[in-house]
Amino acid sequence: MPERTRVEAFIATVVRGDYVRAIAEFYCEDASMQENDQPPRRGRDRLIAHETKGLETMNGMYTHPAPTFLVDGDFVAVQWRFDFTDSGGVRRRMEELSLQRWRGGRIAEERFFYDPKSIRPLQVSPAEPEKP
User: Fold this and answer.
1) What is the number of structural domains in the chain?
2) pLDDT per position as a tens digit, 40-94
3) Is residue 99 part of a domain?
């Protein structure tokens, strides 16, 4: 069971935009990640390589502070909201729910739930500051 402060530290690392560091520091060596119904990716090194490659395809990424997260025994759920600018300069928003199973102080399994059709260009109001 993870300590709540450990989960908060993980979330803070992601919100700071240290995505690769978050995997390196908070995931088990044999961890897996799964996007919706896709087959899981396995192994921390593979997860880091996938994250690095994905970030290289973007011109910027901003993670909103997580409005909600729950810790229940070894399970953690996090509500995420990401704004990203793709290689074509289009800014988009993605919202997802992450369900994690922790082993000790590290994530052993993570599955993301989101609707790919909801990832659309983001219209920025004049009052909203530009994020990367």
Assistant:
1) 1
2) 999 999 999 999 999 999 888 999 999 899 999 999 999 999 999 888 888 989 9
3) yes
> Lowest-pLDDT range, 74-78, 81-85, 113-117, 121-125?
121-125
Query: Do the domain assignments include residue 9?
Result: yes
Token pair for 72: 């229940």
Query: Residue 96 belongs to what domain range?
Result: 4-121
Instruction: Examine residue 109 and state whether it is found in any structural domain, yes or no.
Output: yes
List, as one string, the DSSP characters of the chain. Answer: ---HHHHHHHHHHHHTT-HHHHHHHHEEEEEEEEETTSPPEESHHHHHHHHHHHHHTEEEEEEPPPS-EEEETTEEEEEEEEEEEETTS-EEEEEEEEEEEEETTEEEEEEEE--GGG-EEPPPPTTSPP--
Which residues are registered as beta bridge partners of 77? 70, 99
66 in a structural domain: yes
Q: So what's the pLDDT on residue 129?
A: 53
Give the residue among 106, 96, 36, 33 at the shortest CA–CA distance from 64.
Answer: 96
What CATH number is attached to the domain comprising 10? 3.10.450.50
